[in-house]
Amino acid sequence: MNQELALALVRQSPDAVIFADIEGAIRVWNDAAVRIFGYTAEQAIGEMLDIVIPERFREAHWKGFERAVNDRATKYAGQSLATRSVRSDGAQIYVEMSFAVVLDSDDEVLGVVSLARDITERFEKDRADRKRMQELEEALAEGR
After folding, report:
1. What domains are defined for the chain?
2. Which of 19, 85, 87, 119 has a CB 3.0–4.6 Å from the CB of 28, allowing a cystine?
3. Strands of the sheet with 16-21, listed across from one edge
4. Model confidence over 50-100: pLDDT tens digits?
5. Distance (Å, rounded) from C-alpha 82 to C-alpha 84?
């Protein structure tokens, strides 16, 4: 695969593609990341991943990030994780993310790549459906 094709695939991916080096500094931020998180590539590249991580989750995130880099693998390999994130305007969103540790040709860790998609609408609809189901079950139990 040539470099031009690889760059086009990352840039045009329908999901956010975010690559952070082993320190957690963003080095790749594609067009979908701009759309989802609200930061331009110029604003995001060079910043720490904290820009998209709600403050209350940062400590756990960095422990997991460090463990993944040290272990050269993530415990979420082959899985996606639904979690909260934050946009540039401070709005809280829900994203579904998958992660991989990226190794070079000598098997040295280069950093971590994340793919993300905004699932806020789906998450909120599911939550409203669960609440409505609970209300109906309670009404049924009360004989209403």
Report:
1. 3-119 (3.30.450.20)
2. 19
3. 26-29, 16-21, 109-118, 92-103, 81-86
4. 999 999 999 999 999 999 999 999 888 888 999 999 999 999 999 999 999
5. 7
